[in-house]
């Protein structure tokens, strides 16, 4: 009897082993390099961030100061960084980048290395510190801070003398990145003075110092190393936009590279996504005569930046009082509420999703249902490696689908893959495109479309495509006719 018992146990264990083996979970596919860093991936998910151009130009009604401004003109009568942060929060912004020093050389913090700063201004009797005000206000609301420190300095006499100026610039970087807590982005502008053609910036020293002082920071410049310029100041990325590019082909301040920066490179060896900088007003600094852009213009910028795999860096300049003007605050709120209205409802959410194939079979983690869940990064549909025609199809259960925006997102944590895609509604081609990346938005040329079946075909990709999210939306502000 004991012997039989033993045999039964053995049989049971053998069966259990076979069963477990059969049910072993299919792992995710290998990544397609290059990949984003931890900080680049966090950056990408912010979608909308804010620039604040503020300084002596705000008071002299100019865009590029000469460097000869008297610091006494910097006199905001009621500066309140809480109001700036409030405007940002209402606009859905999670990172605010301040011009700590613009080309005019005036410093918004009391730098030890120059007196051309808030120290010499009547504001707070020379004891003010705008960087500190922003950092404190932002911290209270859980908003992150970034800083812009212009390499071009039209005031400082050391500018043009390489060693002296680079020492000065590095000293200021150390002040800003040591004294004000976490800084999530640093912005290096490529502009240079024509009066000092031989001035060279010691970028590799600067970048190394930045990374030493702030481990989760992203460095922005024409050429990265973490975030690249998109090549224009309109806020428009290329309709093809790769987060990948060859860094070795880039140089800072090189006008002939704007096309390459705008589209990136499918064969690029570096992950270096683009940031689209644009101002809510015609100028970067506040001017009494200027007004914020219309909501429809801001939405067009949104579709051409966030909707093309980029981040939108929207400049909202504080005025002479030291506050963000009411018109801009209102426009930001409208912008946020329009985006919420368009994208908070996914009209496809009750659809039936079918796919060309599924990695690991029907019980794997890579099924079609993953494109309708709320995780836009780490859960995704993956096709089988054995197939070459990849598609995903949404079918209405009952009511007709009625939409004018189609959203597609890739699981970029495993690399940017899709090269070309086409979208059909009830068999008719309604949109086609190239790259997708973190987010691709198709705002349909013909306006609202009705149908039962929406099919997305991936025509070409680097490895198998991995789609993390798909959405159909209605944009009431879009009227192409
Ligand atoms: C810049 O460098 C070139 C070549 O070294 C030299 O001839 C020229 O005088 C320099 N210009 C200035 C403004 O220093
Ligand atoms: C600017 O970029 C072009 C195109 O890549 C390159 O040929 C040229 O050498 C670059 N110029 C400088 C000054 O780096
Ligand atoms: C970028 O680098 C890759 C790998 O070296 C190369 O195949 C590709 O042609 C480069 N792109 C350009 C535009 O030179
Ligand atoms: C700046 O904006 C505030 C409103 O946010 C407004 O009260 C103030 O008058 C504005 N200042 C100027 C100079 O327009």
From TrEMBL:
Annotated ranges, domain Glycoside hydrolase family 29 N-terminal: 72-335
Keyword ATP-binding (UniProt): no
Biological process according to GO: fucose metabolic process; glycoside catabolic process
GO cellular component, one term: apoplast
Origin superkingdom: Eukaryota
Known EC number: 3.2.1.51
Classification via InterPro entries: GH, Glyco_hydro_29, Glyco_hydro_29_N
Record keywords, A-Z: Apoplast, Glycoprotein, Glycosidase, Hydrolase, Secreted, Signal
Family, per entry: Belongs to the glycosyl hydrolase 29 family.
Protein name: alpha-L-fucosidase
């Amino acid at each position: 009897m004991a012997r039989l018992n033993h045999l039964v146990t053995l049989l049971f264990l053998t069966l259990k082993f076979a069963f477990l083996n059969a049910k072993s979970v299919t792992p995710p596919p290998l990544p397609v390099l290059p990949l984003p860093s931890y900080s680049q991936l966090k950056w990408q998910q912010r979608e909308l961030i804010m620039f604040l151009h503020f300084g002596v130009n705000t008071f002299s009604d100019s865009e590029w100061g000469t460097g000869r401004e008297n610091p006494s003109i910097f006199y905001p009568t009621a500066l309140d960084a809480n109001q700036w942060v409030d405007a940002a929060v209402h606009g859905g912004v999670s990172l605010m980048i301040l011009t700590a020093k613009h080309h005019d050389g005036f410093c918004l913090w009391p730098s030890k290395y120059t007196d051309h700063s808030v120290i010499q201004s009547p504001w707070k009797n020379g004891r003010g510190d705008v960087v500190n005000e922003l950092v404190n206000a932002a911290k209270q609301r859980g908003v992150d801070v970034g800083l812009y420190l212009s390499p071009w300095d039209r005031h400082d006499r050391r500018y043009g003398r390489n060693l002296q100026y680079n020492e000065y610039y590095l000293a200021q970087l150390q002040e800003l990145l040591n004294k004000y807590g976490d800084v999530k982005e640093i912005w290096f502008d490529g502009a240079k003075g024509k009066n000092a053609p031989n001035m060279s910036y010691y970028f590799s020293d600067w970048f190394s110092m930045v990374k030493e002082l702030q481990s989760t920071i992203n460095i922005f410049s024409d050429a990265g190393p973490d975030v690249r310029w998109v090549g224009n100041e309109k806020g428009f990325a290329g309709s093809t936009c790769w987060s990948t590019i060859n860094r070795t082909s880039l140089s800072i301040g090189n006008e002939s590279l704007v096309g390459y920066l705008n589209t990136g490179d499918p064969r690029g060896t570096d992950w270096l996504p683009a940031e689209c900088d644009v101002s809510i007003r015609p100028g970067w600094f506040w001017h009494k005569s200027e007004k914020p852009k219309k909501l429809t213009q801001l939405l067009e910028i949104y579709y051409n930046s966030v909707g093309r795999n980029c981040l939108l860096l929207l400049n909202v300049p504080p005025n002479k009082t030291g506050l963000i003007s009411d018109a801009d605050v209102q426009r930001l709120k409208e912008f946020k509420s329009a985006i919420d209205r368009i994208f908070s409802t996914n009209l496809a959410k009750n659809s039936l999703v079918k796919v060309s194939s599924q990695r690991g079979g029907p019980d794997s983690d890579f099924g079609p249902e993953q494109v309708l869940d709320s995780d836009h990064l780490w859960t995704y549909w993956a096709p089988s490696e054995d197939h070459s025609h990849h598609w995903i199809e949404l079918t209405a259960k009952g009511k007709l689908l009625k939409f004018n925006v189609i959203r597609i997102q890739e699981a970029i944590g495993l690399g940017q893959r899709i090269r070309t895609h086409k979208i059909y509604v009830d068999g008719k081609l309604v949109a086609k495109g190239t790259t997708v990346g973190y987010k691709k938005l198709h705002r349909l040329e013909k306006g609202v479309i009705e149908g039962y079946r929406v099919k997305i075909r991936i025509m070409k990709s680097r490895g198998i495509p991995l789609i993390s999210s798909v959405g159909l939306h209605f944009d009431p502000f879009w009227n192409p006719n």
